[in-house]
Known about the structure:
CATH topology: Jelly Rolls
Largest sheet: 7 strands, antiparallel
CATH class: Mainly Beta
Number of strands: 15
Number of domains: 1
Number of helices: 6
Strand order of the largest sheet: 1-11-7-15-5-4-2
CATH architecture: Sandwich
CATH superfamily: q2cbj1_9rhob like domain
Structural class: alpha+beta
Strand content: 25-35%
Distance between the termini: 17 Å
Amino acid sequence: MNSAIAESRPAIPAAEERVGKYDWTALASDLDDYGCAVLEKLLTQEECRDLAALYPREEHFRSHIHMARHGFGRGEYRYFRYPLPDLLGGLRTALYPRLAPVANQWNKRMGIDTQYPDSHADFIKACHDAGQVRPTPLLLQYVPGDFNCLHQDLYGDLAFPLQVAILLSEPGEDFTGGEFVLTEQRPRMQSRAEVVPLRQGDAVAFAVHNRPVQGSKGNYRVNLRHGVSRVRSGKRHTVGIIFHDAR
Protein backbone atom coordinates (compact mmCIF):
# COMPACT_ATOMS: atom_id res chain seq x y z
CA MET A 1 0.00 0.00 0.00
CA ASN A 2 1.18 3.52 -0.79
CA SER A 3 2.90 4.93 2.31
CA ALA A 4 1.14 8.27 1.77
CA ILE A 5 -2.23 6.70 2.46
CA ALA A 6 -1.26 3.86 4.77
CA GLU A 7 -2.81 3.86 8.21
CA SER A 8 -0.45 4.59 11.08
CA ARG A 9 1.24 1.40 12.26
CA PRO A 10 2.45 2.14 15.84
CA ALA A 11 -1.09 2.07 17.26
CA ILE A 12 -2.03 -1.28 15.73
CA PRO A 13 -0.64 -3.67 18.41
CA ALA A 14 -2.35 -1.69 21.18
CA ALA A 15 -5.59 -1.56 19.19
CA GLU A 16 -5.50 -5.31 18.50
CA GLU A 17 -5.02 -6.04 22.20
CA ARG A 18 -7.89 -3.73 23.12
CA VAL A 19 -10.26 -5.16 20.51
CA GLY A 20 -9.26 -8.75 21.33
CA LYS A 21 -10.57 -8.46 24.90
CA TYR A 22 -14.20 -8.57 23.76
CA ASP A 23 -16.28 -11.74 23.47
CA TRP A 24 -16.54 -11.79 19.68
CA THR A 25 -18.69 -14.92 19.65
CA ALA A 26 -21.33 -13.07 21.67
CA LEU A 27 -20.94 -9.92 19.56
CA ALA A 28 -21.35 -11.93 16.35
CA SER A 29 -24.51 -13.47 17.81
CA ASP A 30 -25.90 -9.99 18.57
CA LEU A 31 -25.11 -8.88 15.02
CA ASP A 32 -26.94 -11.93 13.67
CA ASP A 33 -29.94 -11.39 15.94
CA TYR A 34 -30.31 -7.62 15.87
CA GLY A 35 -28.03 -6.18 13.17
CA CYS A 36 -25.93 -4.40 15.82
CA ALA A 37 -23.66 -5.11 18.78
CA VAL A 38 -22.24 -2.82 21.48
CA LEU A 39 -18.56 -2.79 22.48
CA GLU A 40 -18.66 -1.15 25.89
CA LYS A 41 -15.85 1.24 26.86
CA LEU A 42 -13.81 0.83 23.68
CA LEU A 43 -12.30 4.27 24.32
CA THR A 44 -11.40 6.02 27.57
CA GLN A 45 -12.87 9.38 28.54
CA GLU A 46 -9.56 11.08 27.74
CA GLU A 47 -9.37 9.44 24.32
CA CYS A 48 -12.92 10.54 23.58
CA ARG A 49 -12.14 14.15 24.54
CA ASP A 50 -8.95 14.14 22.48
CA LEU A 51 -10.72 12.88 19.36
CA ALA A 52 -13.60 15.34 19.76
CA ALA A 53 -11.09 18.18 20.16
CA LEU A 54 -9.81 17.50 16.63
CA TYR A 55 -13.05 18.77 15.10
CA PRO A 56 -12.01 22.44 14.55
CA ARG A 57 -8.51 21.49 13.36
CA GLU A 58 -8.93 21.51 9.59
CA GLU A 59 -5.52 19.98 8.88
CA HIS A 60 -6.90 16.56 9.92
CA PHE A 61 -9.78 16.55 7.43
CA ARG A 62 -10.38 16.37 3.69
CA SER A 63 -13.92 17.80 3.60
CA HIS A 64 -16.60 19.44 5.75
CA ILE A 65 -20.27 18.57 5.26
CA HIS A 66 -23.28 20.55 6.49
CA MET A 67 -26.15 18.06 6.51
CA ALA A 68 -28.95 20.55 5.84
CA ARG A 69 -27.43 21.56 2.50
CA HIS A 70 -27.80 18.00 1.23
CA GLY A 71 -31.06 17.02 2.91
CA PHE A 72 -29.27 14.69 5.32
CA GLY A 73 -30.78 16.27 8.45
CA ARG A 74 -29.19 18.96 10.61
CA GLY A 75 -25.67 18.89 12.00
CA GLU A 76 -22.26 18.61 10.41
CA TYR A 77 -19.36 16.26 9.97
CA ARG A 78 -15.81 16.13 8.64
CA TYR A 79 -14.12 13.31 6.75
CA PHE A 80 -10.60 12.56 7.96
CA ARG A 81 -7.71 12.69 5.51
CA TYR A 82 -4.91 10.15 5.33
CA PRO A 83 -2.90 9.40 7.38
CA LEU A 84 -5.59 8.84 9.99
CA PRO A 85 -4.89 9.67 13.64
CA ASP A 86 -2.99 6.77 15.21
CA LEU A 87 -5.84 5.68 17.48
CA LEU A 88 -8.45 5.76 14.72
CA GLY A 89 -6.24 4.06 12.14
CA GLY A 90 -5.26 1.36 14.61
CA LEU A 91 -8.87 0.61 15.55
CA ARG A 92 -9.94 0.51 11.89
CA THR A 93 -7.22 -2.04 11.17
CA ALA A 94 -7.89 -4.11 14.32
CA LEU A 95 -11.69 -4.19 14.09
CA TYR A 96 -11.88 -5.26 10.46
CA PRO A 97 -10.62 -8.89 10.85
CA ARG A 98 -13.05 -9.39 13.74
CA LEU A 99 -15.96 -8.33 11.56
CA ALA A 100 -14.88 -9.90 8.25
CA PRO A 101 -15.98 -13.44 9.25
CA VAL A 102 -19.47 -12.09 10.05
CA ALA A 103 -19.55 -10.23 6.72
CA ASN A 104 -18.48 -13.33 4.81
CA GLN A 105 -21.04 -15.51 6.57
CA TRP A 106 -23.78 -12.97 5.84
CA ASN A 107 -22.92 -12.84 2.14
CA LYS A 108 -22.92 -16.63 1.93
CA ARG A 109 -26.34 -16.79 3.58
CA MET A 110 -27.70 -14.12 1.23
CA GLY A 111 -26.30 -15.82 -1.87
CA ILE A 112 -23.75 -13.06 -2.55
CA ASP A 113 -20.50 -14.30 -4.08
CA THR A 114 -18.29 -11.56 -2.59
CA GLN A 115 -15.92 -12.70 0.17
CA TYR A 116 -13.72 -10.22 2.05
CA PRO A 117 -9.98 -10.69 2.65
CA ASP A 118 -8.61 -11.35 6.12
CA SER A 119 -6.72 -8.04 6.43
CA HIS A 120 -7.98 -4.52 6.09
CA ALA A 121 -4.88 -3.55 4.09
CA ASP A 122 -5.87 -6.05 1.39
CA PHE A 123 -9.44 -4.78 1.33
CA ILE A 124 -8.33 -1.14 1.08
CA LYS A 125 -6.01 -2.08 -1.79
CA ALA A 126 -9.02 -3.54 -3.61
CA CYS A 127 -10.94 -0.30 -2.96
CA HIS A 128 -8.09 1.80 -4.33
CA ASP A 129 -7.65 -0.48 -7.35
CA ALA A 130 -11.35 0.14 -8.06
CA GLY A 131 -10.87 3.93 -7.85
CA GLN A 132 -12.21 4.30 -4.31
CA VAL A 133 -9.30 6.21 -2.78
CA ARG A 134 -10.84 8.80 -0.44
CA PRO A 135 -10.85 7.93 3.29
CA THR A 136 -14.28 7.60 4.89
CA PRO A 137 -13.74 7.69 8.69
CA LEU A 138 -15.51 10.79 9.96
CA LEU A 139 -16.13 12.97 13.00
CA LEU A 140 -19.68 14.20 13.54
CA GLN A 141 -20.89 17.16 15.61
CA TYR A 142 -24.47 17.90 16.71
CA VAL A 143 -25.91 20.84 18.68
CA PRO A 144 -29.51 21.41 19.88
CA GLY A 145 -32.05 20.73 17.13
CA ASP A 146 -29.61 18.66 15.05
CA PHE A 147 -30.39 15.15 13.83
CA ASN A 148 -29.21 12.68 11.21
CA CYS A 149 -31.76 11.25 8.79
CA LEU A 150 -31.92 7.50 8.31
CA HIS A 151 -29.32 6.57 5.70
CA GLN A 152 -26.72 4.06 4.47
CA ASP A 153 -23.01 4.85 4.06
CA LEU A 154 -22.33 3.47 0.57
CA TYR A 155 -19.61 5.23 -1.41
CA GLY A 156 -18.92 3.05 -4.43
CA ASP A 157 -19.20 -0.46 -5.86
CA LEU A 158 -17.10 -1.92 -3.04
CA ALA A 159 -18.74 -1.65 0.37
CA PHE A 160 -17.93 -3.56 3.54
CA PRO A 161 -21.30 -4.56 5.08
CA LEU A 162 -20.49 -3.54 8.68
CA GLN A 163 -19.30 -0.31 10.26
CA VAL A 164 -18.62 1.07 13.73
CA ALA A 165 -19.63 4.30 15.48
CA ILE A 166 -18.09 5.43 18.78
CA LEU A 167 -19.87 7.94 21.03
CA LEU A 168 -17.35 10.55 22.23
CA SER A 169 -19.72 12.55 24.48
CA GLU A 170 -21.47 11.58 27.72
CA PRO A 171 -25.29 11.40 27.56
CA GLY A 172 -26.97 13.43 30.28
CA GLU A 173 -23.84 15.51 30.86
CA ASP A 174 -22.59 16.71 27.48
CA PHE A 175 -25.93 16.40 25.68
CA THR A 176 -29.49 15.08 25.90
CA GLY A 177 -31.48 13.36 23.16
CA GLY A 178 -29.39 12.25 20.20
CA GLU A 179 -30.06 8.51 20.44
CA PHE A 180 -28.52 6.17 17.86
CA VAL A 181 -31.33 4.54 15.86
CA LEU A 182 -31.47 1.60 13.45
CA THR A 183 -34.46 0.68 11.32
CA GLU A 184 -34.91 -2.66 9.60
CA GLN A 185 -37.19 -2.98 6.59
CA ARG A 186 -38.47 -6.54 6.35
CA PRO A 187 -40.20 -7.94 3.24
CA ARG A 188 -44.00 -7.89 3.50
CA MET A 189 -43.78 -6.80 7.16
CA GLN A 190 -43.73 -3.56 9.14
CA SER A 191 -40.33 -1.95 9.73
CA ARG A 192 -38.57 -2.59 13.05
CA ALA A 193 -36.77 0.14 15.00
CA GLU A 194 -33.84 -0.40 17.36
CA VAL A 195 -32.67 2.38 19.71
CA VAL A 196 -29.13 1.60 20.89
CA PRO A 197 -28.20 3.02 24.34
CA LEU A 198 -24.57 4.15 24.43
CA ARG A 199 -22.34 5.80 27.01
CA GLN A 200 -19.20 7.82 26.36
CA GLY A 201 -16.54 5.56 24.83
CA ASP A 202 -18.99 2.83 23.81
CA ALA A 203 -18.92 1.64 20.20
CA VAL A 204 -21.72 0.09 18.17
CA ALA A 205 -20.99 -2.21 15.25
CA PHE A 206 -23.91 -2.40 12.84
CA ALA A 207 -25.03 -3.41 9.37
CA VAL A 208 -24.44 -0.84 6.63
CA HIS A 209 -27.04 -2.05 4.14
CA ASN A 210 -28.40 -5.61 4.20
CA ARG A 211 -28.21 -8.55 6.56
CA PRO A 212 -29.67 -12.07 6.45
CA VAL A 213 -32.52 -13.22 8.67
CA GLN A 214 -33.51 -16.85 9.04
CA GLY A 215 -37.12 -17.44 8.07
CA SER A 216 -39.31 -20.52 7.78
CA LYS A 217 -38.23 -20.96 4.14
CA GLY A 218 -34.57 -20.10 4.55
CA ASN A 219 -32.64 -16.86 4.73
CA TYR A 220 -34.03 -13.59 3.43
CA ARG A 221 -32.51 -10.12 3.24
CA VAL A 222 -33.55 -7.18 5.35
CA ASN A 223 -32.57 -3.60 4.55
CA LEU A 224 -31.16 -1.43 7.34
CA ARG A 225 -30.71 2.31 7.76
CA HIS A 226 -29.24 4.21 10.68
CA GLY A 227 -29.49 7.73 12.03
CA VAL A 228 -29.50 9.92 15.13
CA SER A 229 -32.58 11.36 16.82
CA ARG A 230 -32.89 15.07 17.62
CA VAL A 231 -30.37 16.46 20.11
CA ARG A 232 -32.29 18.34 22.81
CA SER A 233 -29.40 20.14 24.53
CA GLY A 234 -25.60 20.36 24.63
CA LYS A 235 -23.15 19.09 22.03
CA ARG A 236 -22.71 15.52 20.78
CA HIS A 237 -19.61 14.14 19.01
CA THR A 238 -19.30 10.76 17.36
CA VAL A 239 -16.55 9.14 15.32
CA GLY A 240 -17.56 6.80 12.52
CA ILE A 241 -15.31 3.99 11.27
CA ILE A 242 -16.28 2.95 7.77
CA PHE A 243 -14.06 0.23 6.36
CA HIS A 244 -14.38 0.93 2.63
CA ASP A 245 -13.06 4.08 0.98
CA ALA A 246 -14.97 6.35 -1.37
CA ARG A 247 -14.72 7.44 -4.98
